[in-house]
Specification:
Strand 10 and strand 11 form a beta hairpin. The longest helix has 13 residues. The protein is 22% helix and 24% strand. The chain is an alpha/beta fold.
């Protein structure tokens, strides 16, 4: 079980120069991937010779992220069975890097997935950090740097979130958010002709985003409230508290068998 929930945010602040921990979202049912996900959780589907989630873990280990929390629900017991509590990476220096992994088991605690914001709120006591990386376990973005310098730039300001946006893929031509000249994410009104980009699911977040006035889920989500992330982000965007930048490296939302097949020719 996660640590006991309380009504207060964590007091653990990242020290100067420190890398942030990460939360990987791996709780979804993967309906569009059926029948492949009838017996295998989507993050464990093979992409170029290894589970999809392993690509994130490798990138996070390379970046020196100190620990990872993975939220699980659908067939979630398979994920800790596969990865265990430590992910090891052999670096070019010849030294092994050990990335500790803990799990927020939403199926065990509440019978199913809590959606994005509900799952994040539940995992916050395990993260125990005022700033953390977020990424969905069903996207393939093998070269994303998870750069510690981005963490330091983020922590020096007052933004509640920094989103990485990507050019719109064919299956999502309308995009999600705009990007201002000053590097802020914009929730564009209908009919606005400004370019929209797709949210990559990679972000830096402050735990304060999951408290009032942005979010009304109690700390640690002890009741298992199910809630999406987008409305919370939009509230923060309206206050000018969400940064964004465009990422143009390889990125694939592995949401259908066809897209999975395209990655495994």
């Amino acid at each position: 079980m996660p640590p006991s929930a309380s009504s207060t945010a964590p007091r653990t602040a990242l020290p100067p120069g420190a890398q942030a921990p990460a939360l990987l979202l791996a709780a979804g049912r993967g309906e569009r991937m059926r029948p492949l996900t009838d017996h295998t959780p989507k993050p464990l589907l093979q992409v170029r010779g290894q589970p999809l989630l392993a690509w994130h873990l490798q990138a996070l280990a390379r970046a020196g992220v100190p620990r990872v929390v993975v939220n699980t629900a659908w067939l979630g017991g398979q994920i800790p069975q596969h990865f265990g509590s430590v992910f090891g990476l052999q670096r070019n220096t010849g030294n092994d890097f050990q990335l500790p992994i803990s799990y927020s088991d939403e199926a065990r605690d509440f019978g199913g997935a809590l959606e994005t914001a509900g799952g994040i709120a539940r995992a916050l006591p395990l993260l125990d950090s005022d700033i953390f990386w977020l990424a969905a376990g069903d996207v393939y973005v093998p070269q994303f740097p998870f750069d510690a310098a981005a963490v330091q730039a983020f922590r020096s300001g007052d933004a509640l979130a920094r989103l990485w946006l990507v050019p719109n893929p064919p299956q999502h031509p309308g995009g999600d958010f705009g990007l201002s000249d000053t590097g802020l994410a914009r929730d564009l009104p209908e009919g606005d002709a400004a370019p929209r980009y797709t949210y990559s699911t990679v972000a830096l977040l402050r735990s304060a985003l999951f408290s009032a006035p942005w979010c009304d889920i109690p700390w640690g989500n002890p009741a298992g409230v199910r809630a999406p992330l987008a409305p919370i982000l939009r509230r923060a965007m309206a206050a000018g508290r969400v940064q964004a930048e465009l990422y143009t490296g390889q990125w694939v939302d592995v949401g259908t068998p066809e897209r999975l097949h395209a990655l495994n020719p």
